[in-house]
Amino acid sequence: MPTSALLIQLTDLHLLADPAEPLGGCHNQPALDAVLADVRQRYPAPDGLVLTGDLVHDETPAGYQRLARQLAGLPCPIWAIPGNHDDPAAMKQYLTGIGLRGPVSIGAWQLHLLDSRVAGSAAGRLGQPQMAALLDALDRSPDTPALVACHHPAGPVGAGWLDAMRLADGDALLSQLAARPQVRALIGGHVHHSSDRRVLGCRQLTTPAVTRQFRPRSERPVMDHAHAPGYRVFRLGGNGELRTRVHRVPTARTALRGNPPVDKIGDKSRQGR
User: Fold this and answer.
1) Where along the chain is composition biased (Basic and acidic residues) (predicted)?
2) For residue 56, what are the β-bridge partners?
3) Given a cut of 90, is residue 266 above it in pLDDT?
4) 37, 39, 65, 109: most buried, per Cβ within 10 A?
């Protein structure tokens, strides 16, 4: 039987050049420390990790360099795509050892990495050249199960203010993916909450942010204090079966508020910075 695989997804880290500086009252670096500590504890040997954008909020070299150092000790391939709060050129320069282009193989699957960033905009767009390249790659491997990763959701998530910032060409993308049954899901972030919806025949998954959460199904920006930061895990079956779950990390919520977790779960992830 073809090889199965375990894939971890982190999204919306929103790091700053100064790891001690809060953003909107939230301490994002220690929240990431706690999330990575949870990943290491639960999944010591994943087959891959994908970062789906908004990695360094202020797009500074110091932020990307610190992130690269922090991820360097993970025992698996790492891939990353930009969000609207990212600088693709800085990612290419400073995220050494991290894959930025796809498709890539993980187990019996392919992972397609998309760049939906539009300079100066919170919304996203793929554009025709990138869309055509994606569809060509999918059509060359029609029997290989696939995930497509994009920072911005292509379809609505049920929150009006966030739906106004989705992919401008999202409907076209979803229709094309739905016509290619090897695509099991479109995965991403941007919305700072978890969702699992079928839109235009395609399964669309969003993942909780590593930082603050936004309340689902809200027509305006409202902080969700009921849910802790988290991450998503994919079990990619050798037979093409997709299983996924979200883990919330209460120690990350504590760290986010500027209070160190009582068990100091994030300490190991600070080593080597």
Assistant:
1) 264-273
2) 15
3) no
4) 109
With a cut of 70, say whether residue 128 has pLDDT above it: yes
pTM to 2 decimal places? 0.93
Over 128-178, what HEC string results? HHHHHHHHHHHHCCCCCCEEEECCCCCCCCCCHHHHCCCECCHHHHHHHHH
79, part of any domain: yes
266 within domain boundaries: no
Number of folded domains in the chain? 1
10 Å CB burial of residue 50 (0-12, 13-18, 19+) is buried
pLDDT higher than 90, residue 108: yes
CATH number at residue 73: 3.60.21.10
269 part of a folded domain: no
Question: Is 161 domain-assigned?
Answer: yes
